[in-house]
Amino acid sequence: MITYTTERLDDLPILFQPLNLQSLSNADRQSIAAIDAALPQTQCGLCGHHDGCLPYAYGIVMHGEAINLCVPGGQSVTDTIANILNRPTKPATPSQWQIDPLTNRPKEVRAIIQEAACIGCTKCIPACPVDAIVGTAKHMHSIITALCTGCELCLAPCPVACIDVIPHLRQLSDADRITEQNHLRRRYHQHLDRVAMTIEQGTKPVVSTIESAMVNVLNQRQNTEIDEIHAKNAIAAAKLRTQIKKLNKQLTLKADADLQNKLDKLNAKLSELQP
Length: 275
What we know:
Elements: H1 26-38, H2 53-63, H3 74-85, E1 99-100, E2 105-106, E3 109-113, E4 133-134, E5 142-143, E6 163-167, H4 174-201, H5 209-253, H6 257-273
């Protein structure tokens, strides 16, 4: 049984800001949280959402996307989502990997690097959604198996095809699977927070799909902040013009050095606010 609360939709990385989850009804938030808790948190993008499992959960609830697109979750996750939404289930999207009859999911895999063939290009490192790859430029890289989700996102960037995918045989209880999924989700969110920070600081080039999406969200936020500043300046300028108009009227009736000084200061402030 999957336990969840809508608190998992709070304090999320900025990448998910466009989903505007805080504005949704409580019923929709509960459904999204439940589906997100059911998803394997591999962040593989095979469902069509390259920004991870949560946007897929959102798409199912808010846009009626198919419930059977989670390839690593297999029939087990498809059935769980159907149960959450009280809908008929569907056949799961096929996987290239054999189905495990004990879990009704594709058999798990993990990525490994042929270390002798690795050229240390670092291209696989930003592709990993949970920072499971360690290494520096021109030095051999390694994948931490205990952290690898088997998403296979590191395969495509490798220019020398030195990353292999191998079976990962194990048995997990439902409770252990939920614990692992929550851990992987936290690592992904930490990865996103770190990426956002480095992009804002300008300390690294944008090289992955996730990083490109992050740039778009950060730019939208910056534009929103600029628009808010313009709006505040417009209100302040309108107030200044009202005061200036009153002072001009008073000065046409009678010259006054103090009023003139005040008028000059207000005009100076108005000039600063205007582009």
